[in-house]
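I hope you will forgive my troubling you with a question about protein structure. I should value your view on which stretches of the chain appear to form regular backbone elements. Here, with my thanks, is the record as I have it:
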Amino acid sequence: MPKKVDHEARRQEIAEALWRIASTRGLDGASLRDVAAEAGISLGRLQHYFRTRDEMLLFALRHINRLAADRIRARIEALAEGPGGEPVREPTPREVLRACLSGMLPLDDKSRTGLLVSAAYFARAVHDKTLRAEAENGIPQLRAFFAGQLRLAADRGELPPERATEDEAMLLISTADGLATYVLLGVHDPETALRLLDLQLANLFGAERA
C-alpha cells in the first residue's frame, strides 16, 4: 500500500529549510534550488509543493506568523492556569498585552530565529507588494486587538479612558518592534528589552500592584 504523504507537513519542512537560510544570509540568495538542498530533497520534489519562489516565500511567512501567534496564545493561556493546569481566572488586559508584546521580542533561540527570518522578509517586502500586503493586513488587526484590550482596561478602571486608543496601541507595537530590532543588532540584551517594555507598560498603566 503506498505510503500516505502529509503534504502540509512537507510544505512546513520546506518553509523551515527556507528559514534556516534566511536567518543566516537573508532571502535574496535563497533560490528554489538552495532551499531544496537545505531541505534534503530534489528541486523537482520541491516544485511539487511550490510552483514558484514567491509562492514558497508567502507560505513560509504565513507559517512563521502562525507559529509566533501560537506561542503568544500559549503564554496568555498559561496566565489563567493554576498549578495543575486548570483554568482559575481571566488574565487582565495588562497581562494579555505584556504576553503579546514580550512574545514579539527575541528572548530565546526560537523567537530570535523567527525574528531574524521576519527581518529578512521585511527587507524584501519593501519592494514586494505580495509580502508587504501581509504586514498591511496584519498590523491593523493587531492594533485593533491591542486597542480592544486598552478599552477593556479603561472599563475596569485600570487605565485612563483617554489613553485607550488605537494610537496608544500602535505605540506599544512600535515599542516592541524597535526593542526587538535592537536586541537582534546587539544594542540591548533580552533582559534590558524586557525591562524597557515593562517600563513602557508602567508609563501607560501605572506601577503594578503587589
